[in-house]
Specification:
Largest sheet: 4 strands, parallel
CATH superfamily of the largest domain: Dehydroquinate synthase-like - alpha domain
Number of strands: 10
Oligomer: single chain
Shape: globular
Radius of gyration: 21 Å
Strand content: 15-25%
Bound molecules: nicotinamide-adenine-dinucleotide
Structural class: alpha/beta
Length: 359
């Protein structure tokens, strides 16, 4: 029987991995079933590290799913539920452990939260985006009919354990991509974090560790104010209106589509361009944002002919109205943005301006 201490309001929802044993001893001493969900990459690169550190996990059941966004589906979820059922899993006696990136955390969290009305789960994120963002906040789910995160529930992990060393087996592009959400957290809530990020000497080193915790702290502080995403939590969508459209555009047109983080980084430049044009955001903050983001991310290359298609993708997004596009407007670095609606013409200008950065 599990007795869980952590809740959404507690800062101890995220801990260094070294605290895992203590956490088990305090909360899951009598638990009889442990499952670890991994994908093929985290099975190879992360599971051995975890098992080596915590011998108590040696007898756990391992569930392996194929890696990649395409496998974040109900079908994969069914496989997980089947495994749980095959082991006669009972809600009270089980802890489910997600060891992986955002896909494993979203998928495993959903599978656990829905099996027998919910078994306890924890996240051990292994990519930068999952460490600094996806592992907390309680959004779990799967894609459905090609629409991202269409099916899901809000369910919080009992704890999130961070271990910087997992990042060592990731490609640099994956790590840089994760920086986008961290930069976003700085921009919407903490100028100091923003400054730290843009001055970081090497993101492949432990310099990143503190930044991960600061980023988590910001996300958690926003989520606790608006768990169900009806108000202030929308500020986390800063950069995402244009970013999502760019991500979809790239999926349609590019053989090697850009990553989510790359799209959000571009979206943040374009959305701050609009704020600057409207005299909401100062020139110096706009320059700092543009230069800071371009330090990590190359401008996305596309033909100006694609702009109309991008705008149609935005207009079709459920969060927008046909004639105006909803954007989180940044007024200053480190200050919560505010939602406002904008005509397509100004979005057109921002895309044009952004594309001129490629030259
Ligand atoms: N729930 C949320 O709040 C939230 C927030 C942001 C993103 N997300 C979701 O997160 C997903 C994107 O996250 P992601 O980029 O971590 O995706 P991912 O889980 O697909 O990981 C990216 C790739 O890296 C591999 N990988 C993971 N850890 C590794 C490691 N340590 N070493 C080597 N390879 C490793 C994975 O197998 C995969 O191939 C999307 O599905 C997105 O919707 C959720």
């Amino acid at each position: 029987m599990s007795h869980v201490v952590n809740n959404l309001l507690s800062e101890s929802i995220y801990q260094p991995l070294e605290k895992l044993k203590e956490f088990f001893n305090s909360n899951y001493k009598d638990t009889t079933q442990f499952f670890i969900l991994v994908d093929d990459h985290t099975f190879e690169h992360c599971l051995p590290i975890l098992l080596d550190k915590f011998r108590i996990l040696e007898k756990v059941n391992i569930i392996i799913v194929e890696s990649g966004e395409n496998n974040k589906t109900i079908k994969t979820c069914e496989r997980i539920w089947n495994e749980l059922a095959a082991h006669n899993t009972e809600r009270q006696d089980t802890l489910f452990i997600n060891l992986g990136g955002g896909v494993v955390c979203d998928l495993g969290g959903f599978a656990a939260a829905t099996f027998k009305r919910g078994i306890d789960f924890i996240n051990i994120p292994t990519t930068l985006i999952s460490m600094a963002d996806a592992s907390i906040g309680g959004k779990t789910g799967v894609n459905f009919n090609s629409i991202k995160n269409m099916i899901g529930v809000f369910a919080h992990p009992k704890c999130v354990f961070i271990h910087h060393d997992f990042l060592k087996s990731l490609e640099r592009r994956q790590i840089v991509s994760g920086m986008a959400e961290i930069l976003k957290h700085g921009l919407i809530a903490d100028r100091e974090l923003w400054n730290k990020c843009i001055n970081i000497k090497d993101i492949m080193t432990e310099e990143l560790s503190n930044i991960i915790y600061e980023s988590l702290k910001i996300k958690q502080s926003i989520v606790v104010q608006d768990e169900m995403d009806r108000g202030i939590r929308n500020t986390l969508n800063f950069g995402h209106t244009i970013g999502h459209a760019l991500e979809s555009y790239s999926m349609i047109h590019d053989e090697m589509p850009i990553t989510h983080g790359e799209a959000v980084a571009s979206g943040m430049i374009m959305e701050t361009f609009i704020a600057n044009q409207m005299r909401i955001l100062s020139d110096s903050d706009f320059q700092s944002i543009k230069t800071g983001i371009l330090r990590f991310f190359m401008p996305y290359k596309m033909n100006t002919k694609g702009i109309s298609e991008l705008i149609s993708l935005m207009a079709n997004d459920k969060k927008n109205q046909q004639e105006s596009i909803n954007i989180q407007m940044l007024h200053a670095i480190g200050v919560m943005p505010q939602k406002s609606y904008h005509k397509k013409e100004i979005i057109y200008d921002s895309l044009n301006n952004y594309l001129s950065l490629q030259h």
